Each structure stands twice: as structure tokens, then as C-alpha cells.
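Please describe our next protein:
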Amino acid sequence: MIFKDKLGYVVNNETRNKTNTKNYTLLNDDFIYEATFKTNKIRKEGCVIGRSGGNMGIYVQPLIIKWCWFKIEDNNVIYDDIVYSLQENKVKQFTTVKVVKIADKFNMYINGDLYATKDCGDLFDYSNQPIYVGVGNPYSNDNQYWFNGQIKEVKIYHNSTEIDNNLYLWYNFEFNSKFKTFDISGNGNHGEIYESNEYKKEKNIEFNKLARPAKIV
């Protein structure tokens, strides 16, 4: 799916009708975040998939992919990351990034190969923080980080073992409605679309150009 014009999805703890079978509590220990994506020419930092608050997730910058998080040290909130440098000619190629948390370590894989391992420390409390795809936090003026490019697939596992029973969500962006992208893991953790006011206004203008004028009687 192409992400542009401030398009993103939020994954809530519970769906509106409370039909999802798994919620955030399963993500408090070990987990896996995986995404396959490619970017347009990056001018600003963007979020592929992550959690808000002290931002944790897969982010992109010019010629950089990183897994970032916040941790607590001496009662202070500290930023940390694992950074992978892209070659100029590979910026627009699909890259698969997988981050596995096992106990107190993050293991970052690039296209199936282990790239780096790093202590995660005492993680910031993400237990109530929303999950976003294509944006860091659309409701924060200083923390939006819209992604500009194509995301082919994202997965989250609520365990460090990569098996179907441990899937929390899985989007391939082939099953969408106007309002959501569907979770094909079967757990009902669908992504609800977020559209900025500017995007909605542009859509309304496009619709009004194509729609027949109202009949006055």
C-alpha cells in the first residue's frame, strides 16, 4: 500500500465492537515487530510501525532505518536505538526489518540476517500506548512522523517465537475498506484509518468535482 498525503492507521487495544481476541496485555513481555517496505526519497523522519508515548518502532530517515525506543535510567526517560545505514541505490528497494525482543535484548534482522543485538534496558511503559502504522502519532503536532513510501506487509507477534499462534496482527494491505485494513491473522486487530483534516478536505473536493450537482426542486 502507498502511504502518502498523511495516511496512517491506528491499532486500538479494543476494536469498537470489542471483537478482537488479543489485546495490548500480551505485548508487555517478549515480542516481534516485522515490516517489509520501501521509501520514496526521504526528506523527513517517518514511522513504519510503532507505539506512541516514548516512541518505539521502526523508523526511517535519509539513508537510515532504525529501531528506536525509550528506557528508564535513574528515573529519567532515555532515548536509544539501533541504526542501519542504507546505500543510496537501495533506498527505493523493499527491505524487511524484523526486531525480536528476548528478555532484556533487542535483536534486529535485515532481510533475514542478524544485523545487531543491543540491551533494551528498563523499557518505558508502553502497555497503554496505541500502535500506529505509517505514522508516529497523528494526534501530536510535534510527534507525527508520517511515512512516505510503500508498506507491503507488517506483523506483530506477542512472543519471541515466530509461529502462527503467537501472531498479534498481520496486515498485507490487500484486504481494505474505506475505513480500515483487515487483520488477516484472524485476531480481529484491524487497523483503523486516520485521515488528516487536509486529506479529508482534498477528498471532498475530488468527490464534488465528480459528483452530479444536487437537483433543486
Notes: The chain has one helix and 15 strands. The CA atoms of residues 13 and 24 lie 6 Å apart. The helical segments are 197-210. The two ends are 43 Å apart (CA to CA).
